[in-house]
Amino acid sequence: RAMSERRTKGGFSPPPSSTTTSNEGAGDESEDPVTLARSAEVDGANQGRSAWCKLNQVKGFSCVTCAAFIWVVSSYWVRDLEGQGMTPLLLTSLANSMFSVLLPVCLLKDWITSKRQKGEEEENVLLSPSRREGDEDWGQSNNNGRLEGEEGKYEKRKNAFLVALCVWPLWFTCLYIYNWSFVLTSVMSNTILSIGGTSLFTYFLELRVMKAKFSWTKVAAIGFCVLGTVLWCFGNYRGSGPEEDSRNALLGDFLCLISSGLYAVVSIIIGKYLPKSGEAEMAFFWGCTGLINLCVMMPLNVILCLAGQNNMQDLPAKLYGMVMLKGLMDNLLSNYMWAYAVLFIGPTSANVGMSIETPMVVIIDLITRNATYLSNRRAVALNVVGAITIMTGFFGLSLSR
């Protein structure tokens, strides 16, 4: 066969024999224009798919980087707002209420989609060749299909609202405790403990609720997370200066771990009861969460203000504007970037990308000279070893998913 192919490429034909004829036919078939065209088309498709994958990777990691940067900046932003007199309760109430802006967007999108579908149906009725006078079944089937689609959308929206009603107390408590911890501990502690704690609690809940497969690799990674958390908390306690500051730092670390546990619970509930929701249903879910928060927490803050337990009447309007801007940037924009990162590069790579927050916080703390966790050598050693151990466990959990 090889000799026959070399002769054919050389430009002359072999003697006419049965074996040669069959080989020649095979060579002709391999050089058939249709086959070559298909092969070129497949190669072009593979090259296009490879370029598309690379483009998605660039988009995904860009979204992760932007989301992480927004989260880090928002952490310092929260500390500054609380330092200017904004209480954690009022700050969390206002920022969470910004989710409600998604509801008008969802309703407007539904109205535009409904008008477009109605126009397409009317156009199909006019242009369909099978449409004859007296034929009522065709129109009836179209109406039935549209009604079934509307009923399906209603059921999805109802389910999303009920899940939002159940998730909102946990979600609000999670963010309230997290914002409260900024008053007591550093941004670096919040970042490190959030990364390790969320992965730790999420895996335990996956085993219990989602019936995930047990893995010794994940257990070892969890052990690293636990050990690193203990080392970091102890180092943070030793490096916080006076006894009162050390106790506050330890309490802040504890609150951050509780917040991570609640965040893991919310993630599991969303993954279990909204597993296949599209972008529209997910936006409706978060919009309902913001609306519930607005209807419950803002009247509560007003009551606390009238009772003299809240100083919201003394805060300048500029501070309220900054909180609402923080809600739009942190709660909305960063979450959407995170969602698109998961869409482009997958949840594992997106989770691993969270680790970029750690060097960002270190750089900002060094520039602003706010790195209290680097106050003495023993605290530095414990913090560095604890951070490396937590990140090792985090990578182990993420890569073994």
From TrEMBL:
It is found in: Membrane. Keywords: Membrane, Transmembrane, Transmembrane helix, Transport. The keyword Transport applies. Its main location: membrane. It is a multi-pass membrane protein. The chain crosses the membrane at residues 58-77, 89-108, 160-178, 184-204, 216-237, 249-271, 283-309, 338-367, 379-399. Residues 1-35, 123-145 are annotated as: Disordered. The keyword Transmembrane helix applies. GO terms for molecular function: transmembrane transporter activity. GO terms for cellular component: membrane. PANTHER family: SOLUTE CARRIER FAMILY 35 MEMBER F5 (PTHR23051:SF0), SOLUTE CARRIER FAMILY 35, MEMBER F5 (PTHR23051). Belongs to the SLC35F solute transporter family. This is EamA domain-containing protein.
